[in-house]
Amino acid sequence: MIGFLRGKLAAKQPPQLVMDVGGVGYELEAPMSTFYSLPAVGADLSLFTHLVVREDAHILFGFGTDRERRMFRELLKVSGVGPKLALGLLSGINIDSFLLCIESSDVDTLVKIPGVGRKTAERLIIEMRDRAKVFGELSFAVPGGSGAEPRGAQAEAFGALVALGYKPVEVTKLLKSVDASVTTTEELIRHALKAATK
Prior knowledge:
Blueprint: E1 4-13, E2 16-21, E3 24-29, H1 32-35, E4 44-53, E5 58-63, H2 66-76, H3 83-92, H4 95-103, H5 107-110, H6 118-134, H7 153-163, H8 168-176, H9 185-196
Parallel strand pairs: 3-5
Antiparallel strand pairs: 1-2, 1-4, 2-3, 4-5
Helix pairs in contact: 2-3, 4-6, 7-8, 7-9
């Protein structure tokens, strides 16, 4: 099992990227949450990985944080959820907001994620409920990587904007556009809404 790669980013075209590790090019698929924190092509990069072996292919998935990879693995245990849908879930909603949806049985937010129908959302809530409780908050930053993901005020602002009717992918982009000096939930929401009206 390949658990970790460190090398240079050779190419990136969502959801695929290529890493040059000692002269060998590894093709990986990654969620958008990882793509947002990727450096420029040619820069050093470290990613946690998960290998999916199928009859017709071996697919390597890359993640910016160990927490993302652990969530990906938990999602694969849900009946009817394959790697493509698990990747879509990680791309469409951040982990903290996803756990909040599971805890509050928020089907409406989950069905806004592309590829997630009502039955899938209900199954996710039922099967992930116990796992979400023991998922834990421990996150390991990849050496040489940012390891950053929305937490605290960012997660609260994310949930509030989704509740206002914005799609999770749109909310992620809006929050990315907010200056890093903004740290309170209220200010994050205000700046994101201002960016949405431009």
